[in-house]
Design goal:
about 425 residues, Aspartate Aminotransferase, domain 1, 7-stranded mixed beta sheet, 14 helices, about 35% helix, binds pyridoxal-5'-phosphate, pyridoxal phosphate
Length: about 425
């Protein structure tokens, strides 16, 4: 049998790029497949290098809430590029972008643009450390905050034990300054604060866990974090790289009515181009250079083409509030439909999500934390993934990720997803 173009490309890529990909999850290892090389996207659909069409539920892992090649974003990019792609000087668009973000997100008084979510997080943590004069940071098990050294730490099993690095190459000393806590567990975070009084600079959290599959916050969890950080002189950081401008135009903080001290943004804020941002309280952000002593810089920060894309995306979302209502309704329909299907076939599955995010955990659930997410049957997820892909539905090639809906998904797309899911769930050997 002749090999496909995707297979040929992957073979060549593997000799040139580590693992053949520029970000590990794209290797499709956890579903036992080789990568789909994308050639083109339009709205809710993509075409691979062999011309096969898929309805896309990866959405570039979050940024594409408006769908692929959304015309106002593409136009803004082209227009900006014609004027010059980079200056290394401030531009008017950066001021407009900062104005827009501070208007949309209550509590963000100042904001600094960077080029990725990773950069946003490491910079926010540096600012928090600079502001508090403390070194320790608490993160939650199963939350992803980019690949900076101090965030590549998962839970040590013992309570409040120093973190163990998740990756080779992370200095033990760096990892030791990161404490980990169970998601949705306020009792544990209280114990961590009791054990490390006056040492914790910040608690960073995904206000909706979306990198262990989708795990919404339990009622009171975010409020509890707000209280305990404030009471202990630590900053609360919402990592809104996924939730920002996805849960609502006012982000997760507006959605839940909980105001952190700092926010990190990425993904949607760049409209599909490489953008991140961090911002928050004026007194904390005033620590950042050249105003204050916390150094942070970037040759391509606030890049005019990237700013134009992000600004066009955020403006489209702001001007069309109906988008969020429709996304929420389709998300609900997808989750309810899947739930019914798995019940019908007696499959141990738990469909979770919020607004335009969903995950099918192949475990009875409910999943409130990473240890519960890890009980999922990943082999069954791989079978489900393959069955759906064969029918032209592209989901994240890993159990512990979200399904991302975009404004371009139609009711018919959702209906087709459910028809396919019913076929796969009801098939022999599933
Ligand atoms: C994707 C993600 C990041 C990292 O962003 P990059 O742009 O990939 O560096 C950080 N935090 C969260 C919550 C994310 O989902």
């Amino acid at each position: 049998m002749s090999r496909s173009q995707c297979e040929r490309l992957f073979e060549e890529a593997q000799s040139l790029i580590p693992g053949g990909v520029n970000s590990p999850v794209r290797a499709f290892k956890s579903v036992g497949q080789t990568p789909i090389f994308a050639a083109r996207g339009e709205g809710a659909y993509i075409w691979d290098a062999d011309g096969k069409k898929y309805t896309d539920y990866i959405g570039s892992w979050g940024p594409l809430i408006l769908g692929h090649a959304y015309a106002p974003v593409v136009d803004a990019v082209c227009e900006a590029a014609h004027e010059g792609t980079s200056f290394g000087l401030p531009t008017a668009m950066e001021v407009e972008m900062a104005r827009l973000i501070t208007e949309l997100v209550k509590g963000v008084e100042m904001v600094r643009m960077v080029s990725s979510g990773t950069e946003a997080v490491l910079s926010a943590i540096r600012a928090a450390r600079g502001f508090t004069g403390r070194e320790m940071v608490v993160k939650f098990e199963g939350c992803y905050h980019g690949h900076s050294d101090s965030m590549l730490v998962k839970a040590g099993s013992g309570l409040a034990t120093a973190g163990q690095p998740d990756s080779a190459g992370v200095p033990a000393n760096t990892a030791a300054a990161t404490l980990t806590c169970r998601y949705n567990d306020l009792e544990e975070i209280k114990k961590i604060f009791a054990a490390h009084k006056d040492e914790i600079a910040a608690v960073i959290v995904e206000p909706v866990g979306a990198n262990m599959g989708v795990v919404p916050p339990a009622p009171g969890f975010l409020e509890g974090l707000r209280e305990i950080t404030a009471a202990n002189g630590a900053l609360l950081i919402f990592d809104e790289v996924i939730t920002g401008f996805r849960l609502s135009i006012n982000c997760a903080s507006g959605y839940f009515g909980v105001t952190p001290d700092l926010w990190t943004f990425g993904k949607i804020i760049g409209g599909g181009l490489p953008v991140g941002a961090y911002g928050g309280r004026r007194d904390v952000m005033s620590m950042v250079a050249p105003l204050g002593p916390v150094y942070q810089a970037g040759t391509l920060s606030g890049n005019p083409v990237a700013m134009a894309a992000g600004f066009a995306a955020l403006t489209a979302l702001r001007e069309n509030p109906l988008i969020y209502r429709e996304l929420a309704a389709r998300g609900e329909r997808l989750r309810a439909g899947l739930d019914k299907i798995f019940k019908k076939y007696g499959v141990a599955a738990c469909v979770q999500g919020i607004e335009s995010l969903a995950t099918i955990f192949f475990t009875a659930g409910p999943v409130k934390s990473y240890d519960e997410a890890k009980k999922s049957d990943t082999a069954r997820y791989a079978r489900f993934w393959s069955g759906m892909a064969a029918r032209g539905i592209l989901m994240a090639p890993s159990q512990f990720e979200a399904l991302f809906l975009c404004a371009a998904h139609s009711d018919e797309d959702i209906e087709y997803f459910l028809v396919c899911a019913d076929e796969v769930a009801g098939s022999e050997g599933f």
